[in-house]
């Protein structure tokens, strides 16, 4: 992308911009095509699933059918409890751990931080069996806590916040101490506010990951009262009797809807957060 | 589960103490079930389970829906390794070797006690037992089983000047009729294909219809050797490839399994091959008269069987295993098998089920329901070996490479066989 801006031939800067915009639009359209198709199919009758007629009658029937086919209200509640409890625990634990790693000297700190980094390298899917054993020992299979617990100490969150906290100027830290701020007060009044963009970016990644997570929730849950929307949605993806795209897309839009709406609402903040929190 | 079981045992012991051992302990079964056939299926299964519990108050069945077949297998294997096991599960019949290799299941014979039990196990269609037995033992009990059948659009046949009551009987007829059924617009674009055989996801299954019709088996009974590069296998693949690439009466490239019924409903294709499990769906959604027939023959007629079996898991208590037997016997009893077959389109698993009043009335009203059963006598076991996923994938990759034109059929099958050999060698 920077190739065009750094073009030595001054006159072709406009052309570069044009190309860049065209490229961005193209990528955007390719990215949005499945979503646009989902919206088209979900709001039209099954006979228009593969035919693009602008005059085709709109309908909400697919949503009604999908909603009735599975206890989605319960699934939504489960998903909501799941992502909020995970995020809350992650924020508290990561903040405290990151603060310790960033600002305290204690025996074994570097070894422990290395262990946290190692955890970053491991795909959670590899640990499924071991996690299952642990949950079973704690008598947690088939509970929402059981889905969330393995993810509550986030290595990624600790790493990200430690880097951010390390970037906080020492002078601010010392000034607060001179003013008589307690240790937790220091964390709360100086470090956390300065890391706000990082918190927002991390929160977005965490929520969307856990909202979309499928395999682990499928394995650890058995009943309607604990299953999140992704697992509930898989009921529609069954292929033996052929696929009814209209209902699948309606159900998919319903399940991804809350996230899409949240993103559109907070889009500006998210984008800014990502830019400011960019990997240092 | 364990807690509730203990509690129940405790309660039962108290009750037993009070009534001098008259009360029986209630046994709880966890029953994993793959939702392979769309939303309403869970309601049908729930209904059957509720009826079962009414008839057998001493047994409690907790049905757990576990997504697709492969999701169910993953969930079951994880639970076993994590020390938690279901007692009964429906899993693909082809996963038998995998479950045996994992030492997860018990042979059904070990559960049988009475002559009635033995008679029950002998009562299934032999075609379905091919995939349920190995090494002289039975490991699975047929439940939601299917074969591939041919659906045709009678209106399209009429428009093409063909007799709408006479589907193709041989490969040659399939080609000649397919040519008449393929319609093109003025620019030469196809508006209706003659025939469609889906090739996404599990092309090996559909392909096995062609190989069976060409009188060649894809694997040996012990599940340790494949015959992918047999000349007759290559010939069958050449036929499939020719349908689209040479004769141009079959859509080119990879054809999606899930949307094939939809293409049929929308008249984009006049003949489709798909599972008999689709029968109820087609009946509900086809807006034209359609027929269902056995697939055409080449050297012989034929189809692979498909679908899921009941398995009983090793780590359950003797009481649970006994209860599992009672549950399976009930679920596959003629009345229930008939009910299940009518509700879904799966083939009722025993001849006795077709003798029930409900099934007789259904077949009389809707003769296509009997086609899959009649075809069973020509059916062979679905491709299944040790390391089933990987060995099957070798074939799937080869088939798709040939269908897209990336490899010739002969080269594709040679590569697939080499890969399968490499994987299966340790098992011989």
Structure overview:
The complex is a heterodimer of chains A (280) and B (428). Chain A is an all-alpha fold and 280 residues long. Chain A has 2 domains: 2-64, no CATH class; 72-277, MetI-like fold. Chain A is built from 15 helices and no strands. Chain A has helices at 2-5, 13-42, 61-69, 72-103, 109-121, 128-137, 144-148, 155-166, 170-178, 183-194, 196-212, 215-220, 229-233, 245-265, 267-277. Chain B is an alpha/beta fold. Chain B has 2 domains: 2-145 and 307-367, Periplasmic binding protein-like II (D-Maltodextrin-Binding Protein, domain 2); 147-305 and 381-427, Periplasmic binding protein-like II (D-Maltodextrin-Binding Protein, domain 2, 3-Layer(aba) Sandwich). Chain B contains 19 helices and 12 strands. In chain B, the strands form 2 sheets. In chain B, strands 1, 2, 3, 6, 7, 8, 9, 10, 11 and 12 form a 10-stranded mixed beta sheet that branches. In chain B, strands 4-5 form a two-stranded antiparallel sheet. In chain B, helix 9 (203-213) packs across helix 10 and helix 18 runs antiparallel to helix 19 (409-424). The interface between A and B is large, with 31 and 41 residues.
Blueprint (SSEs and pairs):
The complex is a heterodimer of chains A (280) and B (428).
Chain A: H1 2-5, H2 13-42, H3 61-69, H4 72-103, H5 109-121, H6 128-137, H7 144-148, H8 155-166, H9 170-178, H10 183-194, H11 196-212, H12 215-220, H13 229-233, H14 245-265, H15 267-277
Helix pairs in contact in A: 2-14, 3-14, 4-8, 4-11, 5-8, 9-10, 11-15
Chain B: H1 2-18, E1 27-33, H2 41-55, E2 59-65, H3 69-81, E3 88-92, H4 96-101, H5 115-121, H6 126-129, E4 133-134, E5 137-138, E6 141-153, H7 154-159, H8 171-181, E7 183-184, E8 190-196, H9 203-213, H10 231-245, H11 260-265, E9 269-275, H12 279-285, E10 290-293, E11 303-312, H13 318-331, H14 334-344, H15 351-354, H16 357-365, H17 371-375, E12 379-380, H18 388-403, H19 409-424
Parallel strand pairs in B: 1-2, 1-3, 8-9, 11-12
Antiparallel strand pairs in B: 3-11, 4-5, 6-9, 6-10, 6-11, 7-8
Helix pairs in contact in B: 9-10, 18-19
């Amino acid at each position: 992308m920077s190739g065009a801006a750094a073009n030595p031939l001054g006159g072709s800067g406009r052309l570069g911009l044009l190309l860049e915009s065209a490229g961005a639009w193209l990528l955007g359209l390719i990215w949005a095509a499945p979503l646009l198709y989902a919206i088209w199919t979900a709001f039209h009758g099954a006979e228009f699933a593969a035919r693009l007629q602008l005059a085709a009658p709109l309908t909400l029937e697919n949503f009604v059918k999908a909603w009735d086919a599975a206890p989605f209200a319960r699934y939504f509640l489960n998903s909501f409890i799941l992502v909020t409890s995970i995020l809350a625990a992650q924020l508290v634990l990561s903040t405290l751990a990151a603060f310790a790693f960033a600002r305290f000297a204690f025996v074994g700190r570097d070894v422990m931080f290395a262990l946290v980094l190692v955890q970053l390298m491991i795909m959670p899917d590899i640990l499924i069996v071991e996690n299952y054993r642990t949950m079973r020992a704690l008598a947690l299979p088939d509970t929402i806590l059981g889905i969330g617990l393995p993810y509550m100490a986030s290595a990624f969150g600790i790493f990200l916040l430690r880097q951010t906290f390390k970037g906080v100027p020492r002078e601010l830290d010392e000034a607060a101490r001179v003013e008589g701020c307690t240790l937790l007060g220091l964390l709360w009044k100086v470090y956390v506010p300065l890391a706000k963009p990082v918190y927002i970016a991390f929160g977005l990644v965490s929520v969307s990951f856990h909202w979309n997570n499928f395999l682990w929730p499928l394995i650890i849950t058995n009943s309607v009262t604990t299953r999140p929307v992704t697992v509930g949605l898989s009921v529609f993806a069954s292929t033996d009797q052929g696929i009814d795209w209209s209902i699948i897309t309606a159900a998919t839009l319903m399940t991804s809807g809350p996230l899409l709406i949240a993103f559109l609402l907070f889009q500006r903040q998210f984008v800014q957060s990502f830019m400011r929190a960019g990997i240092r | 589960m364990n807690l509730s079981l203990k509690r129940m045992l405790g309660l039962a012991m108290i009750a037993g103490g009070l009534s001098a051992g008259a009360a029986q302990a209630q046994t709880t079964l966890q029953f994993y079930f793959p939702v392979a056939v769309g939303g309403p299926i869970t309601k049908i299964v729930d209904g059957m389970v509720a009826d079962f519990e009414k008839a057998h108050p001493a047994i409690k069945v907790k049905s757990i829906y576990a997504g697709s077949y492969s999701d169910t297998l993953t969930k079951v294997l994880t639970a076993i390794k994590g020390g938690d096991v279901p007692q009964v599960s429906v899993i693909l019949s082809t996963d038998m070797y995998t479950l045996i290799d994992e030492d997860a299941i018990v042979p059904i014979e070990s559960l049988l006690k009475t002559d009635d039990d033995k008679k029950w196990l002998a009562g299934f269609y032999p075609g379905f037992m091919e995939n349920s037995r190995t090494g002289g033992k039975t490991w699975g009990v047929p439940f939601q089983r299917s074969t591939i059948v041919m659906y045709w659009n009678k209106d399209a046949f009429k428009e093409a000047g063909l007799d709408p009551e006479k589907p193709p009987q041989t490969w040659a007829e399939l080609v000649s009729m397919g040519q008449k059924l393929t319609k093109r617009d003025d620019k030469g674009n196809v508006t209706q294909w003659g025939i469609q055989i889906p090739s996404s996801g599990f092309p090996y299954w559909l392909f096995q219809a062609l190989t069976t019709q060409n009188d060649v088996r894809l694997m040996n009974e012990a599940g340790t050797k494949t015959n992918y590069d047999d000349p007759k296998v290559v010939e069958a693949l050449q036929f499939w490839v020719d349908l689209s690439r040479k004769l141009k009466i079959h859509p080119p490239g990879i054809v999606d399994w899930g949307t094939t019924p939809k293409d049929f409903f929308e008249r984009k294709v006049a003949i489709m091959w798909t599972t008999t499990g689709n029968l109820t769906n087609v009946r509900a959604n086809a807006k034209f008269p359609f027929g269902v027939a056995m697939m055409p023959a080449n050297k012989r007629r034929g189809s692979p069987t498909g679908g899921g079996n009941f398995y009983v898991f090793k780590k359950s208590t003797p009481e649970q295993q006994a209860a599992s037997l009672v549950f399976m016997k009930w679920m596959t009893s003629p009345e229930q098998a008939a009910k299940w077959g009518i509700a879904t389109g799966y083939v009722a698993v025993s001849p006795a089920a077709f003798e029930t009043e409900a099934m007789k009335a259904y077949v009389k009203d809707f003769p296509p329901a009997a086609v899959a059963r009649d075809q069973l006598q020509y059916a062979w076991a679905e491709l299944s070996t040790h390391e089933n996923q990987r060995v099957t994938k070798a074939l799937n990759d080869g088939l798709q490479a040939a269908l897209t034109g990336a490899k010739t059929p002969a080269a594709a099958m040679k590569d697939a066989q080499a890969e399968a050999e490499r994987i299966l060698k340790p098992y011989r």
